[in-house]
Write a structure and sequence with these properties.
Blueprint lengths: L3 H16 L6 E2 L9 E6 L6 H10 L3 E9 L2 E8 L10 E4 L13 E6 L8
């Protein structure tokens, strides 16, 4: 298991790279095992989504899970990993489980699918 400092350093580097592309409305600043990683940006930067996804997947201590589009924002959610994972092919699928009958349901939700293979060591 890696130290908090190692996971935090990777996350800080990831945030720095994304902030060079566009301003963030909010983001998890501190790595915590009981919380998930997230970044939120204005939908005006939707054209940056493919680059942001690539940056998130380049962080091998992160497991991207969702992209949620709602109320003029785009939020990415991920789990922090405490062991290195291998780089793997991934795909993004629109979720059909978003129920518009619920008042707080997001407009669109996407799920990232890939195999997490941890590196021994």
């Amino acid at each position: 298991m890696l130290s908090y400092a190692a996971v935090q350093a990777e996350w800080t580097n990831t945030l720095d790279r994304i902030q060079q592309l566009c301003p963030l409305r909010r983001a998890a600043e501190v790595v915590r095992p009981d919380k998930f990683a997230y970044i939120t940006l204005n939908e005006a930067y939707e054209y940056q989504v493919p680059t942001i996804e690539r940056i998130l997947f380049q962080n091998l201590l992160l497991r991207p899970m969702y992209r949620i589009e709602d109320c003029g924002t785009i939020e990415f959610q991920a789990d922090w990993l405490w062991n290195w994972r291998q780089s793997a092919p991934w795909k993004c699928e629109r979720s059909s489980s978003v129920n518009r009958l619920y008042p707080d349901a997001p407009e669109r939700m996407y799920i990232y699918r890939f195999n997490v293979v941890l590196v021994e060591g």
